[in-house]
Amino acid sequence: xxxxxxxxxxxxxxxxxxxxxxxxxxxxxxxxxxxxxxxxxxxxxxxxxxxxxxxxxxxxxxxxxxxxxxxxxxxxxxxxxxxxxxxxxxxxxxxxxxxxxxxxxxxxxxxxxxxxxxxxxxxxxxxxxxxxxxxxxxxxx
Length: 141
Fold this sequence. Notes:
By secondary structure, the chain is mainly alpha-helical. 72% of the residues lie in helices and 0% in strands.
């Protein structure tokens, strides 16, 4: 817990919560969250720090691997600021350019956008209904 507190600024957390409530969560915020996670160490290490979670088989199977996080970062970094702030402007030609720039496929870009939209919806549900809404929607990855 101390490691998480060292790496996560409370002001950032409040700003993020406000953005989620107002449905203003962007790909820039998503990328920022990934960077915060990476600062804390591997996902396996983070889960191992939480009592009881390190042993849950479902979480071990559900977590994305580090290479997947690097791919996500590369895709988001290949977008313009406007595209990161408003994913809806990513038409087919923009998605092709992002895929070429990130060294990935258009299918990878499409998958990221789909997962981002699902994550955004899930986060919005958290602000309305707490953890109980997780059982209905599941994790986006």
